[in-house]
Amino acid sequence: MIMYMLLSIWQANRLRICLPGLLTDILTSLNFPKNMRWADHEFKFVRPIRWLVALFGDEVIPVEITGVKSGKFSRGHRFLRPSALDNAKAHESIGDAAKALFDTVKSKG
Asked: What sign does the CA torsion over 17, 19, 20, 22 have?
């Protein structure tokens, strides 16, 4: 049991170290049929990035794209529900009320 716990802690720490670079690589490799570039950034994306949520449990994974740093806050629709969502565990349930979808299956339906 103790070995399992130590292995789990070790794997979680390795993941914390790898995730920032991995997430940055994933974000910069995404490609869409129509991309935008804004300000003086060479980075292209489907829409301007206004905020970025990157979490490992309740811990923020440090990622930065075009000067936008990751955090634990997200926002709903800018006109229908502009308030910030700050509870990582409740994002999905709060999201419906905030007019923000976090589930790709729901968003297609």
From this structure: positive
CA distance 49 to 66: 8
Task: Check: pTM over 0.85? Answer yes or no.
Answer: no
Beta bridge partners of 84: 75
- HEC assignment per residue over the chain: CHHHHHHHHHHHHHHHHHHHHHHHHHHHHCCCCCCECCCCCCCCECCCCCCEECEECCEECCCEECCEEEECCEECCCCCCCCEECCHHHHHHHHHHCCCCCCHHHHHC
Rounded Cα–Cα distance for residues 19 and 25 (Å):
10
Q: What is the pLDDT of residues 19-32, one digit of tens each?
A: 899 999 998 888 88
